[in-house]
Write a structure and sequence with these properties.
141 residues, alpha+beta, 2 domains, 19% helix
Length: 141
């Protein structure tokens, strides 16, 4: 079974936006990670270290909203159409690979499927129709 949720991109105001959504929908932040918390984060500019690399808001009804801050220093900019990514949470690595491969036809692959530092097998692409996807399988410890 695949779970689907939106993944929002913001230009430096992720924390403010997600606190707003929390006030609207309720729930708790089940993940809250700043750039300073990731490997190599200490090498980033001080003003970027405090930005959000990943935050998850889980509502009382179980809906999930995730978000990150885009960083200009990483060549990222926010334009209409790239401020939300559809995230598919898969049941296995095989399912992840199959979906990623199918979506990859004519796509721009931004991150091939691979093991990540946050404990997931994950990949990202923009399909040939301009829809941004993240395929994510949480690895077991």
């Amino acid at each position: 079974m695949i779970n689907i949720n939106p993944y929002f991109n913001f230009m430096g105001n992720t924390e403010e936006a997600m606190n707003f959504y929390k006030s609207v929908f309720g729930g708790t932040f089940t993940t809250f990670q700043r750039f300073r918390d990731i490997p190599g984060g200490e090498k980033m500019a001080p003003e970027e270290q405090n930005k959000i690399i990943h935050i998850t808001l889980t509502t009382p009804s179980g809906h999930v909203f995730m978000a990150t801050d885009f960083l200009v220093s990483m060549g990222q900019s926010l334009i209409a159409g790239n401020n939300c990514r559809i995230t598919l949470h898969t049941a296995s690595i095989d399912e992840s690979n199959q979906i990623f491969e199918r979506l990859s036809l004519g796509a721009n692959i931004e991150m091939p499927m691979n093991n990540t530092f946050w404990g997931a097998y994950c990949g990202m692409l923009t399909d040939r129709f301009g829809i941004q996807w993240m395929i994510n399988f949480t690895l077991k410890n």
